[in-house]
């Protein structure tokens, strides 16, 4: 009797028949049969059995050693074609005959042959899947997928000649063609077995072998199932290594592992959508759930700190970038749990990222170190905060999505003069730009407070100029340039000039004012002597204070020196050249004229390098690091 689940066919076509309607076989007398002779269906099944039995029995693994140790599809693919045709015709003949006599002995004989054939095909299916793992690995499948034809149904296979790339005694032009052939063979066997009612046996073999490949692939990529307590107890260094493995794994898994498995499953079971869905879901579900549950697990159970935000952002970016692939590969309804898990991880990561950014803002506001930086140089807080903000700016695209649900800082807290552009309803500032402007404003407000710790006001202004210059340089050389815009940068550069001007006025104003505005005017020797003495005193005092100052940025340093020199040197040179001869006849003239114009130029050119130039430069030029100092934790 036909097996339960046998594909229902309403037609039968002998080798030379050109019609396929069963109604044409309802009257045997049309073909010269008398009522006493065998019916047409009996004649058909007799002929089919006579043709099928020798072929099927030849490859019965229980009858000959040859059949037991030899692969039909590897030995001779042409004969493998005939075997598939033979089984297909036998199945049609059985169905056709069963409509007339469901208790026929011929059906018993045919069913026995069908079982032997299915046993053979099970063996072939298992061998192809097992032996050809190298040619069926997801990477190879992904590579050749575009070359696989969507035909390979039994009817198409009947008429297509694959002699140019068969295996037994025939050639295969390329390694990739081997994968194509193997995939086509699997599809032929699967369609034959399933249409003959042996879907359970076929799918069991396929699922066991292919699921082991997916599970092994996930394991080899370094991703393992971890409990919440395991993650919570791990040191951050261990978690960080696992995150690095995961970032590599999700890329390989989506582009190769799951993509290749979906391609293979779609090809092998192209003739049945329900089977394709159940098969791929069972193969991929466990591995995919382990892969996409890891980010949520870490986000919920690892110890929180601002510096870990970058790993959270890496994971968020990885899932977001692969989201189209996740939806395409796991598109079946039965795989909604996988898509849901990936989305849940995105949500949890977003929550953790928002929390980490809020903690960074709080740490920045609460930073309370009282130590001043020698020479008015770059404060460590400026370096650390800007490095952190610059790294955040590299994730501005995903942060735009993550922070969309977080309320931006109140517009009243961000003066338009600070932001540098008009924020109006007609031309609103992007929320992500507003967020970064807010972070830098917090930093600059903190620096204003630290400047007040300097007793020398001119040094306080130099401190502000140095630190704001550092901020602007970092903005210009990073993604912050596009987030904040040229107007913002121009506003800050104007502030730098104002700070530098205030430093010059307070540090060198007395020196400039000690020189007469009309240096060529006629004066008495005593007047000239008093001017020289006053200039000497003020210059020495100013130089002594300013010589300990440091300006790490060469552009700002040169600008300051040039500005000071232009206000002092021309006046002093003219006064010096006009009155030096008058002082030459005076006693102790060397005590009166201490500096030549050249001396003044040399002294000014040596300014702002500070006593610790090399140390300051190395700290200022350090590359951004993902490690946040304790002051911002």
Share in β-strands: under 5%
Low-confidence stretches: 1-36, 149-175, 612-619
Largest sheet: none
**What value does the Rg take, in angstroms?**
43 Å
Specify the helix fraction band. Answer: 55-70%
Which of globular, elongated, flat, extended, rod-shaped describes the shape? rod-shaped
Report the structural category.
mainly alpha
> Number of helix segments?
26
Function: Component of the exocyst complex.
Keywords: Exocytosis, Protein transport, Transport
Family: Belongs to the EXO70 family.
GO cellular component, one term: exocyst
Task: Briefly characterize the structure.
With 633 residues, this protein is an all-alpha fold.
Give the secondary structure arrangement, pairings included.
Blueprint: H1 40-58, H2 65-69, H3 72-75, H4 77-98, H5 105-131, H6 138-144, H7 154-159, H8 175-195, H9 199-220, H10 228-233, H11 236-268, H12 273-301, H13 309-321, H14 323-329, H15 336-366, H16 380-393, H17 396-402, H18 416-419, H19 431-451, H20 457-476, H21 480-513, H22 525-546, H23 554-584, H24 589-592, H25 597-605, H26 613-620
Helix pairs in contact: 1-4, 1-5, 4-5, 5-8, 5-9, 6-8, 6-11, 8-9, 9-11, 9-12, 11-12, 11-13, 12-15, 13-15, 16-19, 16-20, 19-20, 20-21, 21-22, 21-23, 23-25
Describe the protein's architecture and organization.
It comes from Nicotiana sylvestris. This protein is mainly alpha-helical. Among the domains are: 204-366; 508-606, Monooxygenase. It has 26 helices and no strands. It is rod-shaped, with a radius of gyration of 43 Å.
